[in-house]
Amino acid sequence: MLLEYYKEISHYIFKLTGDKALAKDLTQETYIKVLEITKTNSDIEIQKAYLYKTAQNLVIDKIRKDKLLLQTPFEENEHFFETNDYTEDLILDEIRKKKLRESIKSLPPQQKKAFVFYYYKGHTRKEIAQILDISTNAVEKNISRAILKIKDEMKKDY
Q1: 135 and 101 belong to one structural domain
Q2: What is the tally of structural domains in the chain?
Q3: What are the RNA polymerase sigma factor 70 region 4 type domain coordinates in residue numbering (predicted)?
Q4: What per-residue confidence (pLDDT) applies to 158?
Q5: pLDDT tier at 76, thresholds 50, 70, 90
Q6: Are residues 59 and 26 in contact, defined by beta-carbon separation less than 8 angstroms?
Q7: Closest C-alpha to 138, from 152, 157, 125
Q8: Shared domain check, 59 and 38
């Protein structure tokens, strides 16, 4: 049942790393970790989200490990290090964007609509009030609460 997500997890890791061989290795490592957990406790039912989280953590661990290896006395090749830092930033940005999308999806419907209309579609608070058939004050509260919930969600992993 977990194998049905193998390609999906592999593609996710590839999106984060941009390296097919590394994606393949980390996908296998993800499944090994998850299978070890289910072996020791057969009562645990692994969710798709757990696979993604395990994969994400392995990518982050790999980046940190590589960064430590690169901080050896062989720092003559500065361009290599700049590229690697840039790649790390891209991967971390992708992880943050994914977390933001998940946070927005988890908002209550009214807050989600107000937030998306305001920040993604560029509507004014007054326009949103008309679209949602609520007061401008209610739009303000929905946007503020949405921001607070998103901030809380984003802080959980960092």
Answers
A1: no
A2: 2
A3: 99-149
A4: 53
A5: very low
A6: yes
A7: 125
A8: yes
pLDDT of res. 45: 67
Same domain, 71 and 149: no
Between CA 26 and CA 58 the distance in angstroms is: 7
Phi-psi region of 5 (alpha: psi -120 to 50; beta: other; left: phi over 0): alpha
Euclidean distance between CA atoms 31 and 3, whole angstroms: 9
Give residue 21's domain range: 1-105
Find the angle CA(8)-CA(11)-CA(15) to the nearest 5 degrees. Answer: 140
> Do 119 and 49 belong to one domain?
no
Same domain membership, residue 100 and residue 132? no
Helices and strands in the chain: count of H runs, count of E runs: 7, 0
Contact by Cβ (8 Å): 115, 147: yes
Estimate the crossing angle of helix 78-105 against helix 6-17, to 10 degrees.
Answer: 130
Tell me what the pLDDT averaged over the chain comes to.
81
The candidate with the shortest Cα–Cα distance to 2, out of 37, 17, 83, 25, is 37
